[in-house]
Structure prediction request, 192 residues.
Amino acid sequence: MRAAEALLLTPGAGGGADHPALIDIEDALSGRLPVRRHDFAYRRAGRRAPPRAPSVAAELVGDLPQIAAELGVSPDGLVIGGRSFGGRVCSMAVADGARAAGLVLLSYPLHPPERPERLRTEHFALIRVPCLFVSGTRDPFATPDELGEHTRAIQGPVALRFIDGARHDPNSVAARRAVVEHVGNWLDTLGS
Prediction:
């Protein structure tokens, strides 16, 4: 495993890079390594609804070398991830061949709420980097048991962390603090 040299965070589908959880992570970790919060092109263009995830993943694959260069790291040293849709897009980009040191997947949308048969896992078997999943125990997009079952397809090491009682959006201060702690602790394990 390669140590994390920088961290790229992306938002959920309807939100922006100014999401409080992403800001909290940046504030807590930017003294340790470069952290960038990144909006996808649709969001920068002022649109709230994203295009289909594969097209956003292709956009990210193209953007990552430039982002890594701007952060002063090689793509292999960049940990990428984000909330919900953003994390899903990052995982798809890595499955499509984007270089990364690891994935941080916050509130991963394993399936739409109340639609567990519509899994968003077809690319998991192509992921070979270390992955951190942080999710609430009451997240309607993925139960802890579902994440435990479906992340077995991932070829890299997987860490699952759960925030008791949290839903899809960790909007309480305590839940966001737990997210920050889980991300920071996991980043410390990379490269060791």
Remarks:
- The chain has a mean pLDDT of 94.
